[in-house]
Amino acid sequence: MYSKKVFQALYTIIFCVSVIGQAWSQSPAEIRGTVRASDGMPLPAVNVSIKGKSVGTVTDFDGNYTIRAQAGDFLVFSSLGFETVEKEVSGQSVLDVTLEEDVEQLSEVVVVGYGTQKKSDLTGAVSSLKAKDFNPGSNVSVDQMIQGRVSGVQVSQTSSEPGGGMSIRIRGASSVNAGNEPLYVIDGFPIDNSPMLAGGGAAGTAVNNNPRNPLNSLNPNDIESIEILKDASATAIYGSRGANGVILITTKRGSAQRISVNYDAYIGVQSVAKKMDLLSAGQYMHGINGISQDGGGTIIFTDEDREAIGNGVDWQDKIYRSAPVHSQNLSVSGGDDKTTFYTSFNYFDQQGIIDNSGIQKYIGRINLTRKLHDKIDFGINLTTSLVDDNNSVDGMSTNEDAGPIYTALLYDPTAPVYNDDGSFNQSSNLTINNPVSLIKGVSSKSKTNRTFGNVFFEYKITDALKTRLNFGSDRQTSRRDLYNSTLTFRGDAAGGIANISTLERSNVLLEYTVSYTRAFNENHSIDALGGVTYQKFNTRSFSGNITGFPSDDLGTDNLSLGDTNNDNLYSNHEENSLISYLGRINYQLYGKYLFTATLRADGSSRFGDNNKFGYFPSLALAWKLTEEEFVPEVFSNLKLRASWGQTGNQEISNYAALSTYESSTTAIINDGAVTSLRPSRIANPDLKWETTEQYNIGVDAGLWKGRLTGALDYFVKNTSDVLLNQPLPQSTGYSTILSNIGEVRNSGIEAQLSAVLVESDDFTWNTSVNFSRIRNKVTDLGEIGDIYTGSVANVGNTSILKEGHPAFSYYGYVVTGIFQENDDIAQSPQPNSQPGYPVFRDINGDGSITTADQTIIGDPYPDFTYGIHSSLNYKDFQLDVFFQGQHGGDLLNINVIESMYPGNFRRNRLAGQVLDRWTPENPSARWPSGVEPSSYGGGKVNTLVLQDATYFRLKNIQLSYTLRPEKIVDSARFYIAGQNLFTRTDYTGFDPEANSFGRSNARVDYSSYPLARTWMFGVNLSF
């Protein structure tokens, strides 16, 4: 009996344990892992689901996922452009997966104008960058993220100041007086890319003339992809705004699979990447004495002076500093089967490497989509931002108006910073300010609030036909406060100078499109688009300037304290609008022949009554050779493309076609002063857009299942009806009229190549290279003749437009050597010269040096540009290295001119010009004697001061390590990064990319803001 009870008890225990074990084995367990592409790069947004169940998730930015599944389940990994993979769960807790590229889908869908297309179906020249392709580091704006990454696209940081201007040229510069920047379209909304408030306005206030980047208000962390439309087939859908190329920016979206939280943060330190090589105090005293004595004068500094002064002051060190930069970004995304959302907040703070400069940004975004009905989708994309900008440094002013960079390069190194009483020392030998007094005595701060976004409704009429209504709004308000205190020469003379400027910009968009997509059978398919858009722009500005304050304490807080009898007020209001009709047809035949036709009609209020509407067509075709049997199987992709089209450029000032008036003389009527008006411009009813006709031939190729991919394009862009100021007879009462009379040609080759060099389980190495060679030429100027331009204070015109030569070529004198003591100077074309003076070439051979001996001495366009990127992955470590550069191209260094032709004898100079100046003991010197430079003859723009802007730069390097904790955090990625660590160049200025003219095609470097070298440490956390 007892044994039977024991047996029954044991049986019960065994049965219960087996049931519990079976239940445990079938209960879901947490599975985690990483999904990567064949090149080893992590894949975000991959759908991970359990086959046959409504359970799923999506990979985060680093390709990581977490899901609960039980033994016997099959996990399905799918992503657009990749082959779907199924993996069985068999008790493992970690399951890593590699997805192979789906050759049929050709890896991705890209955004095009007013829609999307498979990359394999593109007929135009389109470059696509995803988040993994962007430049890492402290990117203030979108432009910096793509610099050097795309062939045919030259991105230049015209000012390295935090928040400073950027310039983008897509396939060269096509215009003279109209804009050359591309059109930006964010989530389908074409935005106003006009520069934000810059410096200027208050007389004598040292500020930055370089415009602030209008894309500072967009958070780079929010960007999912960037597509760059380059040829006319891709850009014609944007008509009169497509001539300079189009940049399409798509921001991130939520996923219906799970809630994702991402936190990104980094902190870094910046230092000046390069200092100008100036004379030290000892070299300065020796050099000044030598030049004075060579010119017949006495010594300036005695031995006692030199001993007392000692090392003097390095003024560059007084204005430079190590500056922090940091950023924090938090985003939350997710949704369900009807609603998805993405929201983020970014705080960015970058202090400048020059004291009293920097930028702070606060940016919030929300993207929301909602399925209101089976046939109706609703969405909203909204960004709001506050940008605090401190930009109280430099520009292109001189002497009393100059800023700290200019004065630091020229200030007497023997002069102390402070007087004995603690006040700033202002040298009696100079008319420029003590650089530190400008740092402390000038304030320029601006605040910009901007909110932009769009709301859309999409209605699916049938499976093939749908309509879309899109409404966009962009509102921006800015205020800049400038104050020049009595610590400076000009501020002291005027009793303080205050200026307040405000700017209000707004634009609204109303857009309606209809699209039709249908595959008739396996051999024919069509994708058609039609629509109408209306966009209106509104700008208001105001500035007030006043002097004579009893104290500097309040700055611009109470202008009424100034001398109200000596104020200066200005206001302006402008509007313009654009109405457009557009259509596009994509037709595919037999899966291998592709045809695209586009037509857009644009009506712009900016142009004359006789030319309100323009029509911009394009045609393109492509042949998928990989669909042909004669193409070897080694090719995973091979496609030929050809396109033709016309696009326009309407980026000129408002009302340029109309008669305008300006204030004239003041008359006394009834004992009162009355200001009269006079015509300032004659109307031109025939004024219209510039038209760019472009031809493009290209080939896309992929080999060995995408291990090697590339694209090669040749293009020709002919821009006609270029807007130029045509001279008028004096009898008309006007000097010029803006007319369409010029032609400019750009042509070139661009190439892009990517390769997976090594691929194994633990290690991958992939690299990409891009190359561009573009030629610019003015082909017609009508009857105007040569046009001189690029005027700079104390220098004059620097460049010229001349038929048969690149636009804005440098125009000046050729220096062939230096006069020696035994030369027959009296019989030369420069009979009044002295030994040690430069020898100018007598171009026309008339025996004298005159303005007729000026000639083209260089041009600002590089022979070619390039970028090289490599990524190495070993297990959880990743190293990214990016180089960029250009070969050729010239840059006029105005600081070299200021040193060679100093406005005051006691100004400092570049060390090389004095240490290697001509003397009887140094006859083979590179530089003239420095004695009486105003008597050199010729002109200040010459081959001695024009410098080669070739450079090779280590732009970015980043080493990262990814952890995958088991709790709380899905992944944690830590990295250290460096920017602008190394530059190889013969250019003597701060940066061969600089342009003190901002976005202009005419380029000079005039006390540009120094380039910063940056080291950063950061972390990315995914929850």
UniProtKB/TrEMBL annotation:
Question: Where is the protein situated, by its record's location annotation?
Answer: Cell outer membrane
Per the record, what is one GO cellular component? cell outer membrane
Just give the chief location class. membrane
Pfam families per record: CarbopepD_reg_2, Plug, TonB_dep_Rec_b-barrel
- Keywords noted in UniProt: Cell outer membrane, Membrane, TonB box, Transmembrane, Transmembrane beta strand, Transport
Name all TonB-dependent receptor plug domain ranges.
Answer: 119-246
Give the membrane topology, semicolon-separated if more than one: Multi-pass membrane protein
NCBIfam families per the UniProt record, alphabetical: OMP_RagA_SusC, SusC_RagA_signa
TonB-dependent receptor-like beta-barrel domain location: 418-981
Q: What name goes with this protein?
A: TonB-linked outer membrane protein, SusC/RagA family
> What family does this belong to?
Belongs to the TonB-dependent receptor family.
**Gene3D superfamilies attached to this UniProt entry:** Carboxypeptidase-like, regulatory domain, TonB-dependent receptor, beta-barrel domain, TonB-dependent receptor, plug domain
